Amino acid sequence: MRPHGTRLCALATATALATATLAACSSGSSNNSTSGHGPIVIGASLSLSGDFSTDGTAFQRGYQLWADYVNSHGGLLGGRKVKLDILNDASNPTTATTNYTKLISANHDNLVFGPFSTLLSVPSAKVAARSGYAFIEGAGGGPAVFQLNLPNVFDPSPPIANQLVLFAKWVASLPASQRPKTAAYPMVNDPFADPMVQTAQQILVKAGVRTVYSQVYPAENPDFHAGADAVAASGAQMVVLGSVDVPTVSAFMTAFEQQHYNPMIMAASSGPDQGAAFLNVVGAGNANGIMVPNGWYGGFQNPLSHAMVSAYIAKYGGTPSQINADVAEAYSVGQVAAAAVTATKGTDNTKIIHYLHSGVTVPTVQGPAQFSSVGENTKATMFIFQWQPTGKFVQVLPASATGSQPILNPKPHWGA
Question: What average pLDDT is seen over the chain?
């Protein structure tokens, strides 16, 4: 998820592309140098298998792009290269906790970066806090992370609780003849997905949109098909789906199409933001009209972002619209770390934590990042994006923001 804003050139350029290469190395890089002359070893636990593997792989690419840029431009602290120490948590919170314990206590990595998801960030941040490590993460923006009230957490991505507020206010502002009268809110039990959907639901209920279906499904092995059929049977004119991955969104869309159910408006908390990973599963025609909140996309009007996008395409191929927003989230983590390491002239985690709490603003590919006492990015700007013909992922809200395109409304029929 992901903002925009200005970036300062000197630090920004080195920091921006530096933040993109940080996570493709294997878990074998455990030889940490404490001499001040060897590589700066940065550990992270990522979901390279399991439910979050699409996101984990995108994070790995973002971390790696950042590290590649840093290393190709002389490293940090006068020539020290960045070395990544990545462990696979298989999308499991317990494994993530074990991984961070190993990265810190056994591998003695200089720094650690966060995993994917609020679900895994909550226990992982606690491990880092007990050891006095800064915990810079780009995908743990749920309230559950910030409610820990830990001093070591820093998330350059937008806080997620309010990410669908723009969408809800847009729906509420529609003329009565265009505004849906009923809505369904199916949600996976997840600390990332649910808060933003529930906040949007409150706004829409106050606007007179009647809730005809609201259900939270178990996180483990939910029966999405049955839930999707129930949503279709409700006849809701709008669906706001609390999802964390592409398979969940695809399951609902497939069931809706089978039931010949086509809501006027459909948004999802996550999944449609994952670029080619989303299009390849659901098809460009079915994607048309689907909306999703985020703080970044491939066409983001930001020099640092443009540089990262170019580097990504050169390394991995594809087009800007096909780049998963998780890449930018990971890249931003590296940029924040690079700024802190440079400013404090070292990898002392206590000094890094104090620096990032000093009110400094760090330019990133997602926009400026400035951190509250609990690690929220107080400078983050939120956007709503939509898939439009033909396979274009465009910014649509705020309508007044530079680069925003008219919203495709109502959503076309499946396959259109």
Answer: 90
